[in-house]
Design goal:
CATH superfamily of chain B: Thiamin diphosphate (ThDP)-binding fold, Pyr/PP domains
Number of strands of chain A: 14
Number of domains of chain B: 1
Oligomer: heterotetramer
Radius of gyration of chain A: 20 Å
Number of helices of chain A: 11
Bound molecules: thiamine diphosphate, magnesium ion
CATH class of the largest domain in chain A: Alpha Beta
Distance between the termini of chain A: 48 Å
Order of helices and strands of chain B: HHEHHHEHEEEHHEHEHHH
Strand content of chain A: 15-25%
Largest sheet of chain B: 5 strands, parallel
CATH topology of chain B: Rossmann fold
Helix content of chain B: 40-55%
CATH architecture of chain B: 3-Layer(aba) Sandwich
Radius of gyration of chain B: 19 Å
Number of domains of chain A: 2
Strand order of the largest sheet of chain A: 3-2-4-5-7-6-12
Largest sheet of chain A: 7 strands, mixed
Number of helices of chain B: 12
Largest interface: A-C, 58 and 58 residues
Structural class of chain B: alpha/beta
Helix content of chain A: 25-40%
Structural class of chain A: alpha/beta
Strand order of the largest sheet of chain B: 1-2-3-7-6
């Protein structure tokens, strides 16, 4: 085992699966880069370098650069998946779903059901989410709620390198379309990652920290901010349990419910916007299941209902942080029925 | 090269099957036996059959909302199709898809599609599978004149050229997208001409003439199998029914349909040309007509008698595991 | 006042606003129909005849048929709105958002914020929702949750003719992009509709029926099924209050909360799918606000997490109906803490 | 027709402003004073300025992620722009937009755009406004070679032809979309040729030559104003910096940028041609250089000193009423 960044973990998962199964191909804009230029190939390896090196090992018939043409990329990947490949397509930023959503919403996601179960679509779409890099309104969203809302899609939101590797391998071996949401600011975070292949099943939440007073459910980067908040709160005598669902579809409501049955209190932390989001979704599910157990209202800590602002001073206020999480937890714990 | 007797008969049988299937669907729909919406393919038979005759089961096609003809030409079982239209559990999709979503991967039918422009990107993918796995399969996409204006269609053509995949784009130009004329909807009405600008061979053929369609398709398929990349074929054709069953068709000229049925019926054209050339006799053709009529009748009977889906079916087939 | 169908009410609202303000234009596929043909113009007036007759009065410079090109339609409407028109664009079926979502999600919705408040986008998108006509997986969805999730969009889901007219006039006069979701099976429903213009403000729910035992929040066509259920339940001695939010964004949470404070019980009925949907969204909001008042868990009656099946026997099971609503209400009322 | 002295000076001033603005942004970005991502326009100045010189404030343009040049050419205030890049509340968007979202409706600048292919449909709308309200305004869309492959772009061109609106599509072909060569990404690399197939006049011009760009734009604008409908202009041009500030540019040939700066600098070309023809003197040009350098310096100073947005700004400007 060695410390690896999430970027490395994802790259490793891709390489291992491509070695193992020649049907696995990577396709997207600048997944290698340098095609049709006088300079070097693999010049990008993905805009943030996540797929770098794959071209050298697997060649351009399996690491496929494309024009700027997201509908064709997603559609080609869906069509290839339905006919025998296991493509890992890249949607550079999740914000771009708007130019290609049909191929996921109405095509890939619906094939299995609408064709009476006779078509499998083992497609993985890797896409970047998250604010915090000053990338403004059209490159900073966390639109996993849109994917989670679509029956037929599975949605993965890894928070760390270890999970990213195991979940991506699982995604590639899964026979349904999977949207794999990578947070820009999680790429450089390190954790212990085994060199060999391993799978993390979908729908199994990770209990990141045990605690007795309050349950915090947090997604992706928010897991880390929640941990910061929990450290602070521990000093105040508040003992937080932190649960990382890892996949929003399927959602491991059981693990969350078991925790809330003990703690009686739930705070959900989600970097995305509040309306029809994953935080509200979990609140509704747990609010119903744990009605008798809840000692305080379920609180959601989310972005405001606005686009992502550019100016870093505003962006910082936009993104939920440890301070806001801690404050929400305090209020939840202090709540007296 | 002269087509074999068997192939000629198959071509005719497939075209007649489409025609009689569609005419019967119209009747059943009007009676209320078929729910939802149906878009009938009658008038365009030479296109589907001319294109599909040289395809193998391993080759894939993607179709449109007007998909029955493509399904039949690609080898879908008409019993399974009719049952699907009737919403029965014996349908090709277990009754879950209906007219706009008939698919059968066993014969390379990747699905009718309710989204105009939904199919072209998928076909680039099916063609990519062939190229990546090193088979000589090809993938064919049917799109209408209306769908020729959709962005996804343009993207798919460019991508197919860039990736040099064995994809063939068929544009069935029947002059209408719903109630809007192609002459209004396309800034340049020459679909093949516009498509050719994307860097792939593009031709227009007379869709009333099965042989013309077949010749163009043959060439494109052979090129694609040989690694020569994608092509476009525009088929100029006609729609005998409305946009969907029940369409009042106020937008059509007076007597337009009657005239088309008289002058531009690809079945009549086929019959005339094969009998005049003494390739098939009227008796042979009539025998096929009768056979097919019976088969369609049987399909309706079977569909009517078939079981409906049961409540449990509502929740199956959505995820492999979840 | 006269009884009018929802179809008539919408048509009337469009005609009146077009008469009043020459900047209002209607644009979409076959909004008149017959362009470039040998037959008659206005042959469709929209696929379900909602815009019929507008062409005759306003001409083809204001009733604009387009190719099949949803991105260009939505984008042109957004661009026109930002530069001085007040377009009412038609997205024939909401299911088609997949081929044009970018122009709403990243363009129209974000202009005002991302440009620092300096651009207004008075755009209305009329679109059809709903299952129940055997139109299968790609023509039967109710995707208002996708629109509601987008900051910057307002979302209207009228349940009847009276509301449709007043809300559409409001939408056209509003300076923000509004998505106006018309249920296929509400078009033929009639109600009393005044001949003159009137506005129904956004964010004001309609209390369709007063009751003391349980609050039902229902959207669009579900309002009518809920009323049926309430009639049945009344005979069993269960007194239902029915609230129709009319707009999901903004959402009139106050009216719902006031009702739940009285009844202590809430059932939410939503024809859409359950994950990250409007039902869950309302459940989360009210669960938090009315925590002390709730005597039973909030129940959601929704479609299952599947695509819409074609076969009418399955489609009927898919759509929430009066039976399922009544059963959910009974369980909610019977619930003992 | 010879351009007036004033207009020549304005053209030069705008081009130099873009160049010096971008070079300064590169410095400030590298220092860390500018957050996020910036895509610099240096090398392409003749395109933005050649196209915009004949535009009026009421004419609209839509731009791309590489928008600074278009903004300046259309008349955006560089103080407001620089402050926006610095994320200040005095920025053109109050600091909420940043480099990729600069807009100023007062001068007809409908926004830079972070979505490749986002602009073309919007411009059809701006042109529709002009047509519907009966003004003779036009609307211009800038798109890159990369963006020329996006479906929305194709749709917009077709729609513009169908609606006969005064829209002009400029394709700035700098040979790259990020790290991918245009020669790879487009099945047909002749952007204007492919676009011409959509049924509108389409030409290619040398983007190093301001006068060539201006002549083509003039013609297209005049045609559009007169009701002659949409046009396409492909401008072949060069990018002096990387895709974004900080790009290592490994995909570029050895010495490629140095060579381009030497041989294909539109400012040098302009200078040479106007001095040789004695239209502007070296002194006049130098004076402009100095003036602009000072203006850019002032913009940076002002931006640096400007106030940041305050917490309350987070929640404003999202709905007019809610
Ligand atoms: C994305 C999308 N837009 C609009 C529609 C509605 N629609 C269904 S078929 C059709 C016309 C298609 O015309 P064409 O491609 O010429 O095919 P044809 O019906 O003539 O076979 C339209 C507009 C749709 N199904 N999908
Ligand atoms: C829909 C979409 N896809 C991809 C991107 C990422 N991206 C930003 S700029 C760019 C390259 C654009 O190339 P081109 O159009 O040639 O413009 P240039 O950068 O050369 O000015 C890409 C791929 C994006 N912003 N939007
Ligand atoms: Mg057609
Ligand atoms: Mg470029």
């Amino acid at each position: 085992m060695a410390l690896k960044t999430t970027r490395q973990a994802i790259n490793e998962a891709l390489a291992m699966e491509m070695r193992r199964d020649k049907r696995v191909v990577v396709i997207g804009e600048d997944v290698s880069g340098g095609a049709g230029t006088d300079g070097s190939r693999d010049a990008y390896g993905g805009v943030l370098g996540v797929t770098r090196g794959l071209l050298g090992e697997f060649g351009d018939s399996r690491v496929i650069d494309t024009p700027i043409t997201e509908s064709a990329i997603m559609g080609a990947a869906a069509g290839a998946a339905a006919t025998g490949l296991r493509p890992v397509a890249e949607l550079m930023f999740c914000d771009f779903l708007g130019v290609c959503f049909d191929q996921l919403l109405n095509q890939a996601a619906k094939f299995r059901y609408m064709f009476g179960g006779k078509v499998k679509t083992p497609l993985v779409v890797r896409t970047m989410i998250g604010a915090g890099r000053g990338a403004a309104a059209q490159h900073s969203q966390s639109l996993y709620q849109m994917f989670t809302a679509v029956p037929g899609l599975k949605v993965v939101v890894p928070s760390n390198a270890y999970d990213a590797k195991g979940l991506l391998i699982e995604a590639i071996r899964d026979d349904d379309p999977v949207i794999f949401c990578e947070h820009k600011l999680v790429y450089d975070l390190k954790s212990e990652v085994p060199d060999e292949a391993y799978r993390i099943p979908f729908g199994e939440a990770n209990i990141v920290r045990d605690g007795e007073d309050v349950t915090i459910v947090a997604l992706s980067r928010m897991v880390h901010f929640s941990a910061e908040a929990a450290d602070v709160l521990a000093k105040e005598g508040i003992d937080c349990e932190i649960i990382d669902p890892r996949t929003t579809s399927p959602l491991d409501a059981d693990t969350i419910a078991e925790s809330v049955e003990r703690t009686g209190r739930l705070v959900i932390v989600d970097e995305s916007t509040p309306r029809c989001g994953v935080a509200g979704d979990i609140a509704a599910i747990i609010g119903e299941r744990c009605f008798r157990d809840l000692k305080a209202p379920i609180r959601r800590v989310t972005a405001p209902h606005t686009p992502v602002p550019f100016s870093p001073v505003l962006e910082k206020l936009y993104i939920p942080d440890a301070l806001r999480i801690a404050e929400a937890v305090r209020q939840t714990v202090a709540y007296a029925r | 090269m002269q087509m074999s007797h068997e192939r000629l008969k198959k071509a005719y049988r497939d075209m007649v099957t489409i025609r009689l299937f569609e005419e019967r669907v119209q009747v059943e729909f009007t009676k209320g036996a078929i729910p939802g919406f149906v878009h009938l393919y009658a008038g365009q038979e030479a296109s589907a059959v001319g294109v599909c005759l040289d395809l193998r089961p391993e080759d894939n096609i993607a179709s449109t909302h007007r998909g029955h003809g493509h399904c039949i030409a690609k080898g879908c079982d008409i019993n399974g199709m009719m049952a699907e239209l009737f919403g029965r559990s014996t349908g090709l999709c277990g009754g879950k898809g209906g007219s706009m979503h008939i698919a059968d991967m066993n014969v390379g039918m990747l699905g009718a599609n309710g989204i105009v422009g939904g199919g072209p990107p998928l076909v680039v993918g099916a063609a990519l599978t062939a190229k990546t796995l090193g088979t000589d399969n090809v993938a064919v996409c049917f799109t209408g004149d209306g769908g020729s204006n959709q962005g996804t269609t343009f993207e798919a053509m460019n991508m197919a050229v860039v990736l040099k995949v064995p994809a063939i784009f068929i544009f069935e130009n029947n002059g209408y997208g719903e109630a809007t004329g192609h002459s209004y909807a396309a800034g340049n009405t020459d679909i093949a001409g516009r498509a050719g600008g994307f860097g792939l061979p593009a031709v227009t053929v007379d869709g009333d003439n099965f042989f013309a369609v077949h010749a163009a398709a043959s060439e494109a398929i052979a090129r694609a199998r040989a690694g020569g990349g994608p092509s476009v074929i525009e088929v100029s054709t006609v729609r005998f029914f409305g946009h969907h069953s029940g369409d009042a068709q106020l937008y059509r000229g007076k007597d337009e349909v009657a005239r088309l049925r008289e002058e531009r019926d690809c079945l009549k054209v086929f019959r005339k040309s094969v009998t005049e050339a003494a390739l098939l006799s009227a008796d042979e053709l009539n025998a096929i007509d009768a056979e097919v009529a019976q088969a369609v009748e049987d399909a309706v009977e079977a569909a009517r008698a078939a079981p409906l889906p049961v409540a449990g079916d509502l929740l199956t087939d959505v995820y492999g595991t979840y």
